[in-house]
Design brief:
Blueprint (H helix, E strand, L loop, with lengths): L1 E3 L3 H11 L9 H5 L10 H15 L10 E8 L9 E7 L3 E8 L5 E10 L7 E6 L2 H10 L8 H14 L14 H7 L1 E12 L13 E6 L2 E5 L3 E12 L2 E13 L2
Antiparallel strand pairs: 1-3, 2-5, 2-7, 3-4, 4-5, 6-8, 7-11, 8-10, 9-10, 10-11
Length: 256
């Protein structure tokens, strides 16, 4: 069982890496507007810790982590700064389940599973970007020192970084154009996160990939400006023409 606790320093270092300066991570007033009494830790920052622990620190049964891995997480409640959490996981013959629990209340904040699956294809491609070695090295230099830079965790975070900074991600019916602009202007919480990758990536040592491209899919959006939106974004990483990883993130946007 792993213990976790987050503070403003974790948030600042993750924002410096990802570009995510959503006020709910730095401004108590913004967090209070979402009925939270403390700053909210970055969801992707927490997920990096969870993935590192489940993929690389725990003893895994021999049958697991072959072929394509599906890592799925549901954010049941925000993870707050200054609160200690424990990561509890259990493995059976088909999958590993986990939950991140408040140590003082035993209330679950994140719940999910790791299992085998089929690697999906990205749908409705709207952008593709070549990520040069220089860009990958810049990301490595900005990587928070307290997070072990495992290849799988690092690549998934680089993908989120690229998605976060993609211009013209949203269509004309949204009041903003990019994910970074959305998070700076609206109250946004992550609700779901799904990662698919080849299990061979868990053993890969390189931190830079020649021929790495990031493919962005057209977001799926429901809702409106009066009641808020639910947005699912998707991104894939390819080495030459081979898909290495696919991620989808679901966000809930509150406008009032």
């Amino acid at each position: 069982m792993k213990k976790m606790i987050y503070d403003c320093g974790h948030g600042q270092r993750w924002a410096n890496f990802s570009g995510d300066y959503n006020p709910i991570h730095f401004d108590l007033t913004a967090a209070a507007e979402l009925n939270q009494a403390a700053l909210i830790a970055h969801g992707m920052r927490v997920i990096a810790d969870v993935k590192n622990h489940l993929f690389f620190q725990e003893e895994k049964p021999n049958h697991q982590y072959d072929g394509t891995i599906r890592f799925s997480a549901k954010f049941e409640k925000p993870v707050l700064c200054g609160t200690q959490y424990k990561l509890i996981n259990n493995a059976d013959n088909t999958k590993t389940t986990f939950k991140l629990v408040d140590c003082s209340t035993d209330i679950s904040r994140i719940r999910g599973s790791v299992s085998q699956a089929t690697l999906p294809e990205i749908s409705d491609l709207i952008a593709e970007e070549i990520v040069t070695s220089d860009c990958q090295n810049d990301a490595a230099e900005r990587w928070p020192a307290e997070i072990e830079r495992r290849f799988t965790t690092f690549l998934s975070s680089v993908m989120f970084r690229a998605l976060f900074n993609t211009p013209d991600l949203f269509h004309e019916h949204m009041p903003v154009h990019s994910l970074s602009e959305l998070l700076s202007k609206e109250k946004v919480l992550q609700t779901h996160y799904e990662l698919y990758c080849n299990a061979l990536l868990l053993h890969r040592k390189e931190q830079s990939i020649e021929g790495l491209s990031i493919c962005i899919g057209k977001p799926f959006i429901t809702g409106d400006a009066n009641y808020g939106w639910v947005i699912q974004v998707q991104v894939a990483a390819k080495e030459d023409e081979t898909t290495l990883m696919h991620i989808s993130v679901t966000l809930k946007v509150t406008t009032n």
